[in-house]
Amino acid sequence: MIGIVVAIREELTEFFSNNKFVAYKLDAEDQPVFTSQIMPEVAVIESGMGKANAINATNKLIELYHPNIIISAGFAGSVKQNVSSGTSYICNKLWSIPGSPAFWSTDIAENTNVMDENRAVRLNKVINEFGSPIETGACMTVDQFIYNHDLKTWIGENFSVDVIDMESFWVNQTATENNIETIVIRVVLDPMEQKLPPFIVEAANNKKSRTVLNGLKHVAINPGDIKKIIEISIQVKKSRRILTSNLESVIESEKESASLTSNTV
To answer: Which of 211, 200, 182, 170 minimizes the C-alpha distance to 77?
Structure first.
């Protein structure tokens, strides 16, 4: 069984559509689980953003499905110059730096290896052959949405990492505590040079802000943001397509290399 943890379900809209995933379980924490009759060996949970949500969702996935592998998948921000939207990584090393950026230092960061070099090379080869181009890299997990250029630059200059997110380190830690292997796939949404507008941050944190109605209200109040919205929409579609392609390639590869069964609950 393969479990997938994604912070925001909209990142996997194309994956859900391609493979007929539907909501299967809802709970009070609002972390829905999605399953598919045509891909019965896979279960996806929408965690929400951040450490606590990532840990809770991973534990829930383990309790319900006892997966052999857990994939942390989703968008990320680049902390390296000249990396375009849609660039994707298999992360073989994860970093975490806690707290507010005002208190960050290189001394408080911790890191862990996710997979050995042979496995990273195999997955890299499979995805490049059947999915979209992908690189092996490292990911830094932070406690809040980082959308400005200066903070991304600081991380890129002080750590050997390629992208930042808010969940991967904690998904991996929780899976490891339960003796479950982890794969981390991250696709760049926002390049280092791009500062995301505040309404994008609000939409990421607030599900109600992702609706069409709220989007129209924002445009009515802030007509100057229309160009930015169009640009971000193009980036989202591109990143979503690449993430879907790479996820499907990894799932097929893992199905061939291991005996995976559908665990029903």
So the answer is: 200
Residue 241 corresponds to which tokens in the numbers above? 């397509």
3-class secondary-structure state, position 92: strand
Residue 15 lies in a domain: yes
pLDDT in tens, 147-159: 788 899 999 999 9
Q: Is residue 157 part of a domain?
A: yes
Range of the domain at 19: 2-257
Q: What is the pTM of this model?
A: 0.86
* Separation between Cα atoms, residue 85 and residue 89, nearest integer Å: 12
Q: Helix, strand or coil for residue 76?
A: strand
Q: What Cα–Cα distance (Å) separates residue 156 from each residue in 79, 114, 115, 168, 234?
A: 5, 20, 22, 17, 25
CATH of the domain at 237: 3.40.50.1580
Helix (H) or strand (E) holding 24: strand 22-25
In total, how many domains does the chain have? 1
